[in-house]
Amino acid sequence: MADRKQATCIAPVNIAVVKYWGKRDENLILPINSSLSGTLSTDQMCAKTTIAISKSFQRDRLWINGKEQDATGKRLQNCLREVRSRCGSEIEGCHYHICSVNNFPTAAGLASSAAGYACLGEYFEYKEGITKIQFTIRQGSGSACRSMYGGFVKWEMGNKSDGSDSIAVQVTPESHWPEMEVLILVVSDKKKGVSSTSGMQTSVKTSKLLKYRAESLVPKLMTEMETAIQQKNYQAFAEITMKDSNQFHAVCLDTYPPIAYMNDISHKIVQLITHFNQYCGEYKACYTFDAGPNAVLYVLAKDVPQILSAVCHYFPCTENHDSYIQGLSNYSDVKEFPKEIENTICLDPIPGSLTGIIHTRVGSGPRVILDDNESLLGGDGLPKC
Amino acid sequence: MADRKQATCIAPVNIAVVKYWGKRDENLILPINSSLSGTLSTDQMCAKTTIAISKSFQRDRLWINGKEQDATGKRLQNCLREVRSRCGSEIEGCHYHICSVNNFPTAAGLASSAAGYACLGEYFEYKEGITKIQFTIRQGSGSACRSMYGGFVKWEMGNKSDGSDSIAVQVTPESHWPEMEVLILVVSDKKKGVSSTSGMQTSVKTSKLLKYRAESLVPKLMTEMETAIQQKNYQAFAEITMKDSNQFHAVCLDTYPPIAYMNDISHKIVQLITHFNQYCGEYKACYTFDAGPNAVLYVLAKDVPQILSAVCHYFPCTENHDSYIQGLSNYSDVKEFPKEIENTICLDPIPGSLTGIIHTRVGSGPRVILDDNESLLGGDGLPKC
């Protein structure tokens, strides 16, 4: 272990409520608009990553969820090159072994790479102690910079051409709005979609509506969303979140050729939430969809039982009830959906359309684990399992 | 028959390639942007309507496809009131019997009411001989005014507040581009969607992207589309058609609550056409979707066999082969899809996802049938069957 340095970090997933879509600079990873997200608790979902540096390593190696991956990819290497140039002679001639695991199914199609890169960021921030490290981890995944803090986090697009003012800052810590919980509805879908990297490139090139949205609509949305969060105004938060998600997917459809990340089940979820809110006369849940069919619902803790009951009624589990809901709730917590509401909501249940539900909350940012027993790499620099 | 006047008309369906979505005046039916459509041949699809006026009729009555309908609806009555005020004392104390049939399944969700109202328009134009009648029939269905002519037709939005310059004019007659054929892919879908009337009202109220599209993007699209049609430039025509359809559906998603007219099968059709065109290195087909999941493909006659072969390969018929394709082609005309193209198109066939295909072409406008034997109403003023 003498010539080897290593650290293990845990980093969260973040889910945007004002979406990032499109770069104005592909090399510096500078966005065409500011964005804002909630950081999800690492208790339910996180990436745990061990990074080791040693002169004895022959080459960079990368393991994700137990499987060795190609470590020569452009994004990872850009990121590591940046790290090398920062660390200087101290790590000259060294190579990296990086081992990362998610504690949630990657099949969920959730932004797992952002969490992985945020680990890398946390590790070097721990060493460097500056927010400049955001620039480095954005080389890996743009939105990863928003996973560097807990609570609600905004990524200011900035104006400078060198990107030095394009940084993520915390809007409110996780203690500000502890009632804010999250339900992730994982939609059954095997199709391989368009990656967000290539999708946003095509959108920037072809969608006139994206340009208009980024320049003329998002600045106002950002201000309104920050105010809603600071005032803990759920009604405003919910409406902006849903409208922003709708508009992001509208822009994807306006892309040429068009990109449809939401599928029929996604749209049924939208209908359920819309009808349920209308029945209640106020927002009880709001949806947002990233570059895939899964729905993420931001819901206040007091309303979670009602929403879970509605979701389980219209998207019933067909097998493995015990594992259908994971996290803060269990399937045994789910109450029967009231007949009187069912009669006003014109939807037919679609059994088997979700593979599961993850119940979590807005939580804290990444952290370094100092206990070496928690390392994912053994004494030989290879994954422990 | 002495105190009775009647006429029978046949009117076509039109399918927009630059979409109409949103009114700037709900009473005068004035659109927020100009639109442009192809008129489809009445040989394959049309509405046939007989209108009779008599003092002996006790009340207005309406039959559509053999079933009596409510004749007190606002749209029809607005339309008839307008007619009464134009015709004056001649028809005082009279009531209408109107009988209309479509020669295509209304289940196809195609714009059948436009054709019906165009019949009404043709009948009174026949009597009045002026294009002012467009104002009247727009009271029934806005886009019906584009069914008043054959070939390609534009509806100029106009600027005057009384709507007097908001009129449909022919861009080119059907003889200009006789090679232009049309395949309608009827998608199996039982869900009741949002009507286009209420959908566009909500879009106008809530979608910021719609406003931008109508004001800043459509004027240029209209000019480009007219040029493409006048020059018979299929490559330009195809690209504008697809981009405009994408943008219309993007605006529907940006509506709040969002409207998704296209479903998973619609998006698979988009993928097939996109991949097939990419394989060919030029546009061989272009898609457009109205307020429903059905695809309408504009295809040059020379390319129809290839496109039919592709559609039948990826959306194969599971029953009633003989009736799967109607109109200008038969199922026996369909050639096997070449293996070498299949290998480059990454799509799985989805059997049973279409209920059928209608093969037609751009055709002529409405016409009055003078032969009384063709009337849908008998001597008693009631439907013959």
TrEMBL record, chains A, B:
Q: Which family does it belong to?
A: Belongs to the diphosphomevalonate decarboxylase family.
Please state the pathway this protein functions in, per its UniProt record: Steroid biosynthesis; cholesterol biosynthesis
| InterPro entries associated with the record | GHMP_kinase_C_sf (IPR036554), Mev_decarb (IPR005935), Mev_diP_decarb (IPR029765), MVD-like_N (IPR053859), Mvd1_C (IPR041431), Ribosomal_Su5_D2-typ_SF (IPR020568), Ribsml_uS5_D2-typ_fold_subgr (IPR014721)
Gene Ontology CC annotations of this record: cytosol
GO biological process per UniProt: cholesterol biosynthetic process; isopentenyl diphosphate biosynthetic process, mevalonate pathway
Name of the protein in question: Diphosphomevalonate decarboxylase
Assigned EC number: 4.1.1.33
**What's its job?**
Catalyzes the ATP dependent decarboxylation of (R)-5-diphosphomevalonate to form isopentenyl diphosphate (IPP). Functions in the mevalonate (MVA) pathway leading to isopentenyl diphosphate (IPP), a key precursor for the biosynthesis of isoprenoids and sterol synthesis.
Where's the Diphosphomevalonate decarboxylase-like N-terminal domain? 11-168
UniProtKB keywords: ATP-binding, Cholesterol biosynthesis, Cholesterol metabolism, Lipid biosynthesis, Lipid metabolism, Lyase, Nucleotide-binding, Steroid biosynthesis, Steroid metabolism, Sterol biosynthesis, Sterol metabolism
Q: Name one GO molecular function term.
A: diphosphomevalonate decarboxylase activity
Q: Which species does the entry assign this protein to? A: Trichoplax adhaerens (Trichoplax reptans)
Q: Which residues are in the Mvd1 C-terminal domain?
A: 182-369
